[in-house]
């Protein structure tokens, strides 16, 4: 559980697991955490034939923004996991609001465990940052466990730039990962810089406000909350200036491919 919590904290740019109980408060004004539901919906519309029988797995679903909009638009069943109970409860409330509660199943759970027991899905979505499943190659292989042969994987990640930020795989290096793991890239949708800046500015404003409120309530934890705001800004700067955000739609390659 310690490792799981560390990965969770890292995926939400928290420096310590001590911050985890405060994340629902800090992020209370934001429904769409991370991946863009609009982009994911568009990729599914463009490349995948869906029906009421289509089964979707959403790992690290956050507050359920993607799961709910997929269920509403495509009428398919979505099973979603996140480790933060408050996020799951929020997602359940939202599913009622959007009248898709019968199509959405939200579960409090460790996605590291889920990939070992959840199988036979048509689509799996993974939008958490960090190395929860290991390196990119290990991540793809873990996600493949959850889908049918010929199924689809949607990953929200980044392309690195060797000259600016060598920590992350370049687009060319990602292609090597695809070859090694037996998947085919159908489309990679790059994030638009202006949209990223708009979203970052809006989210940073509300996160700073919530952090200020927590500092007043828990002055002994001020440094932790200030550090979180700073780490959020660093991530925003990386996405704006050093990295290229990307949503990748992959297909488990079959012989006919």
TrEMBL record:
It comes from the Archaea. Transmembrane segments: none annotated. InterPro entries: Erg6_SMT_methyltransf, Methyltranfer_dom, SAM-dependent_MTases_sf. Gene3D superfamilies: Vaccinia Virus protein VP39 (3.40.50.150). Keywords: Methyltransferase, Transferase. GO terms for biological process: methylation. Pfam families: Methyltransf_31. GO terms for molecular function: methyltransferase activity. This is Class I SAM-dependent methyltransferase. It comes from Methanospirillum purgamenti.
